[in-house]
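ok, trying the design again with the full structure, not the truncated one.
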């Protein structure tokens, strides 16, 4: 079974940058589409970005031009580079593939 573990969250000022990582265990990582979702307090979990096995990416409109998703199949890791962060980006960020979710990592954007 695939297990996912996020890291890299933290407190950052508006306009700052942060890179999240999601390390996967198990086989066949390279064939999976990997995604990032987020959930702010009192809100539903929402899609942020995804990357296919072929490296095709897709982003939510709210993060286009600011966030970049990438993957390193040799390391079984997917990344989310976040730039120009806004207070509304504050949320718990989750890594996702198939039916599997990571435990989440908190991102707080505040001055």
């Amino acid at each position: 079974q695939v297990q996912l573990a996020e890291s890299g969250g933290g407190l950052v000022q508006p306009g700052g940058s942060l890179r999240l990582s999601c390390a996967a265990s198990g086989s066949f990582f390279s064939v999976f589409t990997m995604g990032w979702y987020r959930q702010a307090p009192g809100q539903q979990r929402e899609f942020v970005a995804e990357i296919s096995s072929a490296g095709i990416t897709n982003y939510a409109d709210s993060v286009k031009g600011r966030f970049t998703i990438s993957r390193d199949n040799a390391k079984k890791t997917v990344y989310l580079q976040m730039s120009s962060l806004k207070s509304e980006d504050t949320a718990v960020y989750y890594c996702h593939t198939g039916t599997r979710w990571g435990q989440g990592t908190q991102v707080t954007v505040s001055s």
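Keeping the full-length input from now on. The two ends are 40 Å apart (CA to CA).
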